[in-house]
Amino acid sequence: MALYNTTKQKLTAGRQVVGGTIHSADPETFRAMAGAGFDFLWIEMQHSPLAYDEVARAILTARGSPAIPFIRVPDATEGDIQKATDIGALGIIVPMVETAEKMRAAVRFARFPPAGRRSSGNNQARLLWRDDYRRTCNENLVVVAMIETPEGVAAADEISSVEGVDVVFAASGDLKSFTGLAEGHPDYEALVARIRDAALGAGKRLGGPLAWRNRPGFTFFQGPAEATLIQSAAEALSLPGR
């Protein structure tokens, strides 16, 4: 089946993909990010006050933009994943993964039967993508498991082996936060290496921050947020008095 999720096309071909992170549902900001050259948008619903109705409208206003909408859901609940997919997300990013069962549940909730238990509803995803969305959605979804804690690292092999997980993401900042280790410390690097080996060993794509784009094996990256990009652009202007 032909893929209309261009991010999944690139991942399947072994290419690198970069997502711009967005915390705002402001239509102008959202459209600017969606057309800025990113492969996908990392729509942040774990660490933001965004509501699904706001994100639904923002995704619709950016219809036809090259960046594919991905949503980091607050958690791997049936309700969160159902709403995220119904409003048109073709990528589901699951935070704080510490068990394979959490990802098995996430995959079930994201996929239509017989592969999963997602229910059919009147949603805008069909409007955004194509008339045969119900038949083609499962193949076009990208499911991302974020490993952020030592407990998640310990279960990395089991998490990576879950059928339907496409990307295993090494969350650099939270690995630092939960361990107190700095990047470059041998113990920190051992945690990252364990995630890397588990993901690649299971045939999954490996994700991390954009700063890691030159690390071997990494192909899926979280890029900067809109506020960071605005500040960087202003600094590049070399305004008087700065």
Quick take:
With 242 residues, the chain is an alpha/beta fold. It has one domain: TIM Barrel (Alpha-Beta Barrel).
Word description of this protein:
- The protein has 242 residues and is α/β, with parallel strands linked by helices.
- The chain has one domain: Phosphoenolpyruvate-binding domains (TIM Barrel), CATH 3.20.20.
- The protein contains 12 helices and 8 strands.
- It has an 8-stranded parallel β-barrel, surrounded by 6 helices.
- Helix 4 links the parallel strand 3 (68-72) and strand 4 (91-94).
- The chain is globular and about 50 Å long.
Question: Which keywords apply here?
Answer:
about 240 residues, alpha/beta, eight-stranded parallel beta barrel
By CATH, the topology is: TIM Barrel
Overall strand count: 8
Helix content: 40-55%
Strand content: 15-25%
Poorly predicted segments: none
Question: What's the arrangement of secondary structure elements?
Answer:
Blueprint: H1 6-12, E1 17-22, H2 27-34, E2 40-44, H3 52-61, E3 68-72, H4 78-86, E4 91-94, H5 100-110, H6 125-128, H7 133-140, E5 142-147, H8 150-154, H9 156-160, E6 167-170, H10 172-179, H11 186-201, E7 205-209, E8 218-225, H12 226-236
Parallel strand pairs: 1-2, 1-8, 2-3, 3-4, 4-5, 5-6, 6-7, 7-8
Helix pairs in contact: 4-5
